[in-house]
Amino acid sequence: MKRALIVLALLVVLALPFALRTNSTPTVAKADDTLVIVTPHNEAIRYEFGQAFARWYTAHTGRTVAIDWRVLGGTSEIARFLDGEYITAFQNHWVNKLGKPWSAEVQAGSQNGRLAADAPAIVKEARAAFLASDVSCGIDLFFGGGTYDFAKQATAGRFVPTRIVKKHAEWFTDDVIPRLYAGEEYWDKNGLWVGCVLSSYGIIFNRDSLQRLGAAHEPEQWDDLTDFRFYGEVALCDPTKSGSIAKAFENVIQQRMQRHFKALHDAQPTTDAKALEAQAVRAGWIDGLRVLQLVGANSRYFTDTSQKPPIDVSVGNCAVGMCIDFYGRAQAESASKRGGSNRLGYISPPGGTVSSVDPIGVLRGAPHRDVAESFVEFVMSMEGQHLWNEKPGTPTGPERYALRRLPVRKDYYAHAEWRADRSDPEANPFAQKDPLIYRPEWSGGVFREMAFVIRVMCQDTHDELREAWRSIHAPGVEAARRERALAALQDLSVVSYDRVLKEIKQALGSKNKVDEVKMANELAGKFRAQYARAAAIARGQE
Q: Which domain holds residue 326?
């Protein structure tokens, strides 16, 4: 009898979540229509957009819809999944439908959007066949991520033009969603993807920890994170695993490039602008990397997920962290609601970050194309835009979660009557003073190489970097010795802009992955030796 009661109690516990679950949206099996979406977005965004779209879809079509969310991880995991699925699908199409022989050359060429003019005829044929096909990965939409990731998928040919750009041409204007803003692309010129929400980057900080460490002030700019008082207190993310954080690091470098260009132009107004620009880009590259190197020296870790730093700062495991704006704002709000305190703060450094878009795109061979287009329309409509930055429970806002994101539509911010319902009523990315103007020609072409360099310089050699930095700031180190040790630490000639453009870019772009490993080992070895020398100088051993 006792055993039966235990079993019954266990069954009740297991059944309770299902009994209490609301049936506001139908399951995939019961819905009239289905939509399959792959996304790196968190559960809050998935819930709110799933619920709101289901209502919108029924109101517009009279049919029910269920979303099958595919959560594979971050954008790098999604990219690997799409690579495998599209290659497999096209191989089946090429061999079984077209009756052509498969080869590594055909495989690579079919996914290459930048084929050389003298590429073999069979490779060109494979590329044309892929673009003419309707091969599918079994998913309708890619929702969320960065423009870098979407541009790569677009170049590979995995997106098809969304109908929204023609259906609602009035939305895709300078007054609503500009094509370009502050140097950032807000939607693809061919309609392969459109930006649906804005992201910027900044610093989350714990005021209790700042007081404990004796910080002079709350952080305001990126280089505030180089203060040695933050040694072991900075939370960072691996830029090779998170495209968003890599973008934040690129913002640091772009800010330095812009500062150098302005200073050179002010000092030499009659000098050729192109020559000054080339000089500023190279100087700003090194300057920005030096800032990131010292931030890395202060870091406690480099995590794989961009959601971890805000959490660790919130609980006091770290004092500060670099993060995406909405993670910082949401964590600060969560801490305030739980404890009623304002111990967490967030700031996007003025002039130090751009607002870039998280796009949405319809995938080639989408099995539910019409439903996918409806979802894109909903997300870009004002009904969808309201969800991003309004308080839960407001008439047009989300149900449960404050998403703390900034809508991409410029006309949204023109409505003063909506400010009372907004989570961040003062935030307007289109009304910044002295904004950072993103120049893709400066660092966009070496984005992957930049992330690689930062990983090797700071993460792969983290122990040696931290030890050198600690030695430089050890008590009793005289100023001249400290300056000489710091100069040794920050000699970044091995990763100069020109070397990154040539040797490092060539190694990372090689078909033989051994070349990338060799380059990583070579650079890591040089940095380790360099950091050991800096530590020795600081200790008076050299």
A: 201-353+437-538
334, pLDDT greater than 90: no
161 burial level (CB within 10 Å; 0-12, 13-18, 19+): middle
The helix or strand, by DSSP H or E, that contains position 307, with its residue range, turns out to be: none
Q: SS3 for 361? A: strand
Q: What is the pTM of this model?
A: 0.82
252 shares its domain with 295: yes
Token pair, residue 269, equals: 């107004």
Structural contact between residues 50 and 25, judged by C-beta atoms closer than 8 angstroms? yes
For residues 66 and 69, give the distance between their C-alpha atoms in angstroms, rounded to a whole number.
9
Q: Are residues 263 and 279 in the same domain?
A: yes
Name the E strands within 109-268. 141-143, 159-160, 180-181, 184-185, 194-199, 201-206, 234-237
DSSP state of 422: B
Domain boundary among 383, 400, 429: 429
Question: pLDDT at residue 323 above 90?
Answer: yes
The rounded distance, in Å, linking the Cα atoms of 509 and 505 is 6
Confidence of residue 22 (pLDDT cuts 50, 70, 90): very low
DSSP string covering 268-301, please? -TTS-HHHHHHHHHHHHHHHHHHHHHHHHHHEEE
Counting Cβ atoms within 10 Å, is residue 275 exposed (0-12), middle (13-18) or buried (19+)? exposed
